[in-house]
Amino acid sequence: MRLSAFDFDLPEELIALRPVRPRRAARLLVARGPETHDSQVEALTHWLRPGDMLVFNDTRVIPARLDGLRRRETVDGSGEARIEVTLLERLSPDSWTAFARPAKRIRAGDRISFGKDLTATASAPEQGQVTLTFDRAGPDLDQAIGEAGAMPLPPYIASRRAPDAQDDEDYQTIFARRDGSVAAPTAALHFDDVVLAKLAAAGVLTAHVTLHVGAGTFLPVKTEDVSDHVMHSERGSISAEVAAAIDAARAAGGRVIPVGTTALRLLESAAREDGTVEAFEGATDLFIRPGHRFRVADGLMTNFHLPRSTLMMLVAALLGVERTHALYAHAIARHYRFYSYGDASLLLPNG
Predict the structure, then answer these.
(1) What does each C-alpha distance from 7 to 107, 214, 216, 277, 343 come to in angstroms?
(2) Assessment of whether the complete model's pTM goes beyond 0.70
(3) How far apart are CA 153 and CA 158, in angstroms?
């Protein structure tokens, strides 16, 4: 399938730079079978049934954007340069891979200082990425990153305003428990204690899995044939207890509805041929696009995604390309807010 099949025009004013308050006040576009309904997240129970299960990603976003100063001994004293890095994946207690900008200013062995208490030695850059070996490890490194780093807002927000203290709360879900993501599982940003209490009272079940979201989620697809795209890898886990609970919900007739594309990718990665879920620990590079046979997910709650993105392709795999474009056209015409801080959709292809 051609990349152009996933293109659309989005007015810039529909890109949300801040979330609505309270979280549950976000709008919810419901695609139930062939029907399309305008609703709100607060009314989510209207569209769900007792015994349905929502599956949340409990990853926690770390302050992965670091501003550094490269220091290098030179004869002319020109050895300092400002470097910005975004941490990608932890390799060991003291090392991370990272995007670096501008990478061309880094050579193997360069020392980069992040504030007064954190320093790393860089590898030679490859396609904009470096490996950083820090001068501390384990919890000490985590604490230092927490003090020196900033919330890694998506490029379409960061290019229009700087992150601030409010983002420390806004860009973190209430389920966040396990450090490791450099981007939020944004569909879950709409949930608060009020919504969770309503879900419980309505008999809707919940479960938590973990997929640490990498910065690769924002990388553009550059191949015209989407099947040639190499999907980024992310690490995740599903406990045996959670896998059994998901299987029990499905066996009892409940629908399994991941909240966010990250939770969906992890569930489908852990699915057996018969649709049951096995415990999972490791990495997944599953690329869900039209033609994928869903084994576990009966629907999806998600935000509105960038054109030509792997996330839009995932939605099209669930709904079909034509239905996805119709839904997005509806959202644009009715001024839904797009992307990470935007509104949500509930996709129930079988009604």
Answers:
(1) 38, 23, 19, 33, 20
(2) yes
(3) 6
